[in-house]
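Pair request: fold both.
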Amino acid sequence: MKRTLVVLAVGLLASGLVAAPAEASSVKSGFLVSSQPAAVEVATFWLGDGGANLKNATPYNVQTAVDIVIPGGGVSSDAKPGTIPPSPPSTSGVANDKTPTTSGKVFFVGADGQPHWCTGTAVQSQYRNLVATAGHCVYDTQRSAATLDKWVFVPGYSDGVTPLGLYVGKLVSTHYDFTIYDDYDRDYAFVNVYSGVVSSTSGELTNFGRLADNVGGQGLTWNQPLHSSVDVFGYPAGPHPDGERPYTGETIESSSGRTTAAKVPRLKAEEFTAVESPFTGEGSLGSSWLLRYDNSSRMGYLNGITISVADTDGNLRYDTSLSPYFDGELGQVYTAATAQWTGSLILPA
């Protein structure tokens, strides 16, 4: 479903949202925190008490699975292909592994008042401060037009530990059709985060530097042909329909496959891509689909984001992950997001 609608500046200002540039009328942006002191409170909420809220968070279980996936669909390029190259981290000392350091968990408080998490990934941007995830891992689809509370990104998260810092979300950019019309063909979001913080032994927050300086930023590409091989990285945690739980959600998992076009009637989605993957839905929402992923550099090009999973053969095991097709309108949202500066969370005394 495609629309191009102008976001009215008056309405945005009244709701605390910021207008996108005139040339990007399909973009809607909004603040996740009202001020820098409010952002400090968010970081303290997650890092306080030895990271208790991080440890107690559960995988987000909103719109994790669909029942019917129809092969084929209206996927097509709407403009020339676009490509943003990846950027390696500026700092050294990251543990050698085959999984990307850019992957992590996004934490937030849901409509139920409880802490939850999805998957997210750091993406290259002008100010090295950008995270990509599913749109409904930022906007609360259970509360119209509301953003999820206390949103942060923790790359490399494991059992309450933040080895690469914690990054508070400041501003989110997504497609107008998703936030206004619940159009799941546009279920993606880019979040600009403050520079990272860690908790000192005394419990005080200290600066940890910019996100992409610490972990790097994946590239981004859109209007790419289907049947391309992608590597999927995420933190699946929930059960299969048969009750089996093959994943804990504590470590990043990977799978690979080729993309195909798909329609999902339940979500009224006509422009989805699908990839064969055994990931369960809870926890893996927001997982990155990386095109041309290189194991040595751990870099590739983001070309999809898991927004749901499906059991397509009826054997009670999830076998397919689903993403909106990345077209030129996603490129518009990214272009608006990449120009947003955030700065440091901890200001000089």
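--- second member of the pair ---
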Amino acid sequence: MPGVTHDEAPLLADLMPWSVAPLRPGRGWPMGPDAASLRARWAAFVKADATGREELLRPSRSRTLHTAVAQLPGHRATTAPLATESGACPDPVRVLHGPFDEQWLIPDHRLIDAARPELWRVAGAGQLFLVEQGYVTGSAGPAVLASAVLPDGRSPAGRPGRVRPLFRRPGGLEPNVTPGLLAHLSTALGQDVGAVDLLAWTLAVARSSAAGCRVPLTSDAEAWARGTELGRRILRLEARGDGARPKLPGGRRPYVRAPLPARPAELSYDAEAEALCLDAGRISPVPREAWEFEVSGVRVLGLWCERRMAAGEAGSLEAIRPAEWPQAWTSELLELITVLTLLAELAPLQDELTKETGPGSTGSGITADELRRAGVLPVPDAARRPASVLDHHEEGPGGQFALI
């Protein structure tokens, strides 16, 4: 029987059809690794006179001191122009800033060029997001990542992907899945298949391509069971929505062996000692697999550390940052090393599953053509558009209610 080619595997865009482009911040200072710095930046901005505010804001075509915008869904920031702002900083919220990097963001629509309000409307309890990663020829690493907090969708290199919420409505309602697909898979596999099952399978087998992320499907119930179990393990490591902290066995857990300096300037890796070095500070053991873990051709650990080591341009709001390396960053770094180590250990299982279900596999693959013959594809246009989710008023510019 002929093998299933990569091009025959369905595109993720046809399985989870509603997607949103990455956020476009327009300026860096409203986002950062610690909330206290964001509040200090806001205070410095509000304290400045009109000329100073103009320089600090970093105006763009979309946002100036006088731009009128609607309230960001779910957040109470005022809609008065920034030129007259005198209040306290809106409470920063957690967001995912590219792969594995949870940071803080001031949730103020006046500061963000393109905030993608449709994402904010469906974020919250019960929601999960899949983020396609930028395609880079020959690069290793996952094609998609999962997040329980709202992701900005940025890719460290290559073409930015899309953000795909698992559900189209708040509270985990109405799966963002092509109509008829879950029923088709349930029949083919002889078991109930839900939206989270599809997401888990996707995390286990998805592969990048120039045409977009592809997800090989199978009618082999045993392979599906192994794939969804593997995908749920990946999901627990990437999203951690239940607050559980991943752990490595004793003897393999990373520890701080030499204190990290207040403001490290140089990052390096000692392969022989399996040590991550920030100036004289040392963390070990850090397996080579964790140090070399890449997304879109960029090493995750290096990027994470460099973002926190960056001093920011003198005189800019980005230059307002912690005077000393916070203990919270150390805890987050140790957790990131653990997560990358555990994900690297799962990679061989993913490769084995891909050989069974991906290019060249025989017998059990569900191709895009099969989904077309079953009437699941093409995707109805309505499924690619956001659902109407408003059950309350959203404040528009100048305190007027938005009409949506």
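Observation on the second member. The CA atoms of residues 88 and 266 lie 36 Å apart.
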